[in-house]
Amino acid sequence: MAMVGLFWIGEDSVYVGAEPEGAASGVRLSEDGVEVLGAGRGRFWTWDEVVRIETRDVPVRSGARRLASMAFDAALVAVTGYGDLPPAFSVEVATAEETVPVDVHAAVTGGIYLPSEYELSVTLLQRLADGGTDIGDLLAWGRDHAAEGTPPREEREALLRKWAGA
């Protein structure tokens, strides 16, 4: 799996945020559509049914502020011995009939996204929902490259620009 923007990309699916484990909630994007995962959630919509996918409360900071936050968190864990799960943010999947909010965990190291990757990711989510981009492009990249791990920042941004048509 590899992290590119808000997406955790594997060979057969893409998650918005981290891939959920156990009963944790999550949002999976596949060739067939959008699926909400987690205990008691289990919802699925085809791409034709989805009209909007939006995020809320995503932790975004500039490079310097991101590094400072990560250093503070590491020091806190070292002193107290307690670590937290990555920060959560909300993903809303909307159809013509309903809007379903889902909390997901950040996939990025330190739990804080850079503004450029966040903005490109939001654009990509809009294009996926309106049919302007095909999830197959992300999945094809995942089949070829996800096993290599998360690419460097410049490559992630280039991928997001390409996929979003930005």
UniProtKB/TrEMBL annotation:
<protein>
    <submittedName>
        <fullName>Uncharacterized protein</fullName>
    </submittedName>
</protein>
